[in-house]
Amino acid sequence: QVQLVESGGGLVQPGGSLRLSCAASGRISSIYAMSWYRQAPGKQRELVATITTGTNYADSVKGRFTISRDNAKNTLYLQMDSLKPEDTAVYYCNADSYVVGSTYWGQGTQVTVSS
């Protein structure tokens, strides 16, 4: 299987920046897409960004967040700039695998944007 471990969350002031990391291990070659999701209290989990051949972003983060990956390090990143209080959520790394029925989630990392 695939294991995902997020890191980099924390407390930041509005307008600040954070970079989240997701280290992947296991059957890495089976992954065809990776994404960042987030979930705030009382809200549904939402897709933030996806990277496959290209990248895609939610309208709410477009122009502020950048998803990237370092294949040599088996690591996914989410660079978050110009953070807003509404970005506060638990951020989850996700991987979709060619293995039928296989999707993987990290444990999540808390991002809090507050003054």
Please characterize this protein's 3D structure.
This protein has 115 residues and is mostly beta strands. Strands 2, 4, 5, 6, 9, 10 and 11 form a seven-stranded mixed sheet that branches. It has strands at residues 2-7, 10-12, 18-26, 31-39, 46-51, 55-57, 65-70, 75-80, 89-97, 103-105, 109-113. A hairpin with a 3-residue loop joins strand 5 (46-51) and strand 6 (55-57). It is globular and about 45 Å long.
The overall pLDDT, averaged over residues, is 96
Radius of gyration: 14 Å
End-to-end C-alpha gap: 40 Å
Structural class: mainly beta
By DSSP, the count of extended strands is: 11
Q: Provide the low-confidence segments as ranges.
A: none
Shape: globular
* Helical stretch tally: 0
Helix content percent band: under 10%
Give the SSE order as H and E letters. Answer: EEEEEEEEEEE
How big a fraction of the residues is strand? over 45%
The largest sheet, given as strand count, sense and whether it forms a barrel, is:
7 strands, mixed
